[in-house]
Amino acid sequence: MSAPVLDASALRELQRPLKEQYRQDAASAQIPATATASLGGEGIVAEVTSWAGPVQAGLHPAAGGDGTLACSADILLQALVGCAGVTLRSVATALGVTLHGGTVTARGTWDARGTLGVDREAPVGLTDIELVFDLDTDADEATTAKLLQLTERYCVVARTLVDPPALSVRLA
């Protein structure tokens, strides 16, 4: 299933009632997001429910996995590039910038020593994430810079990584 093709006017018309609703009722703009992983079955696997179907997450080969299951760090980077790509296309549409194509790539590094408890001083988690856009557009350099600036500002996943929320962990 593909997304509808929108121009700037159609995008504004689509979003106009939503923006008006959120201006009138700020509480309606608070959108809950939930993800769930099932822990049943065999092996060190968490089955993550997604809109595209289940994703089997497991150990990365650097942590003892065989490479057949999705790595959670990769899933995080995939969420980042998906969000950044959609945000960039939305911003380009709103600004009337034509994108002929391109790619969004996220790169990060994690230290297996931290994850495996080999070195208590080693970090656990991705560090130094880089988001790289390779765009095929006729836009000039200033317009392209504006696209990236607005994408960074409005991408939910990027903003979450830049300004992380409080995280609590508890038993149900």
What does this structure look like?
The chain is α+β, with helices and mostly antiparallel strands. It is 38% helix and 20% strand. It has 5 helices and 5 strands, in the order H-E-E-E-H-E-H-E-H-H. It has helices at residues 8-24, 72-95, 112-115, 141-154, 156-162; strands spanning 37-38, 45-48, 55-58, 99-110, 126-137. It has a 3-stranded antiparallel beta sheet with strand order 1-2-3, with no helix packed on it. A two-stranded antiparallel ribbon has the order 4-5. Strand 2 (45-48) and strand 3 (55-58) form a beta hairpin. The two termini are 36 Å apart. The model has no long low-confidence stretch (mean pLDDT 94).
Distance between the termini: 36 Å
- The fraction of residues assigned to DSSP E strands is 15-25%
Mean pLDDT: 94
Helix/strand order, N-terminal first: HEEEHEHEHH
Radius of gyration: 19 Å
Percent of residues in helices comes to 25-40%
The overall strand count is 5
Key features of this structure:
globular; 3-stranded antiparallel beta sheet; two-stranded antiparallel ribbon; 38% helix; single chain; 172 residues; 20% strand; 5 helices; alpha+beta
Describe what is shown at a glance.
By secondary structure, the protein is of the alpha+beta class. It has helices at residues 8-24, 72-95, 112-115, 141-154, 156-162; strands at 37-38, 45-48, 55-58, 99-110, 126-137.
